[in-house]
Amino acid sequence: MTDGRDPRAPDDAGGTADDPRTAADADHVVGRAADDAIGGTADGRAPRVTVVVPARDAADTIERAVRCVLAQVGAPPFDLVVVDNASRDGTGELAARAGARVVRLDDRAGGPGRARNAGVAAATGSHVAFTDADCYPTPGWLAALWTAADAAELVAGPVAADPTATRRTWDRTLEYPAPTPLWATANLLIDRTALLAAGGFDDWVADDEEAPRRPFGEDTVLAWRAIRAGARTAWAPGALVQHAVFPRDARGFVLHHRDLQHMPSLVARVPELRRELLTGRLVLNAATATTTLAGASLVLAAATRRPAALVGALPWAARQARALREVGPRITAVRAAGEVVGAASLLVGSVQHRTPVL
């Protein structure tokens, strides 16, 4: 795990409200740009692309996100739909004021997957581009995605931390500088027909009260459904999206690793990740693998009373020694704590879902 990165890289419909073909039935528009022509459709041309942005309690970032989408240069005709997922901070009103068409969901029982499905149901373009309420597409973003879509139904682009933000050691952001098999909807374009054929997004990480509070992998599952159905893929390096940076302390960094409990379930849903993401079809990253090996060695040494079993902890000890030299004791200790939490979470998820990931 590197500081501030998504721990995955480490967020079926069945005719319900989660189905992109029916989800809009329970929604209503609360805002619209002045002439109903957003992002290059003022001349009356039908949108080729609908940009969908799910948003919940995003008052701090949504206006900038909307302005960045509407400032696209050289893009095909497009419209913008912000889906206000039952926000309590005026997110929808701020998005409408900034120039977006806003669809509102009135209950908080669904996560960003449900919100994206509602946006797809409201889409008018032949393609749907996704980004998030805390993301700021650069001016050439949509043009680059659209160019790559000439030969693909599923196109992704890079995500980088907002370069204008001050970034401290433990702050949270999202970075995907190169193609990833996780297919993050922070920066994704998909042919609408392929999207509907894939069945829409599924918020499969649920919470009893407000599901899901911490979404995980719904974009990955959708993308691989489309790929299995024949969607061609492409990477658009010029389609850059910049992600907001959020304050977080050391404790928050450590606890964020608990999300890795969902990784084995994601791998079970998308077995292609064993080939595309995991090393040796089993290992998520060196940090979690060496931590797991060290823990197993400690247990074995204690159970057998044979200190020689501790040899399995040497790779972990070597990593910590190297970190001590590079970043000092405090950062090393916090990172090590995060690795322990992450490795334990992977173990719990692996046992729960009978799908081993280290």
Automatic annotation (TrEMBL):
<protein>
    <submittedName>
        <fullName>Unannotated protein</fullName>
    </submittedName>
</protein>
<feature type="domain" description="Glycosyltransferase 2-like">
    <location>
        <begin position="50"/>
        <end position="174"/>
    </location>
</feature>
<feature type="compositionally biased region" description="Basic and acidic residues">
    <location>
        <begin position="1"/>
        <end position="11"/>
    </location>
</feature>
<dbReference type="InterPro" id="IPR050834">
    <property type="entry name" value="Glycosyltransf_2"/>
</dbReference>
<dbReference type="Pfam" id="PF00535">
    <property type="entry name" value="Glycos_transf_2"/>
</dbReference>
<dbReference type="InterPro" id="IPR001173">
    <property type="entry name" value="Glyco_trans_2-like"/>
</dbReference>
<dbReference type="InterPro" id="IPR029044">
    <property type="entry name" value="Nucleotide-diphossugar_trans"/>
</dbReference>
<feature type="region of interest" description="Disordered">
    <location>
        <begin position="1"/>
        <end position="25"/>
    </location>
</feature>
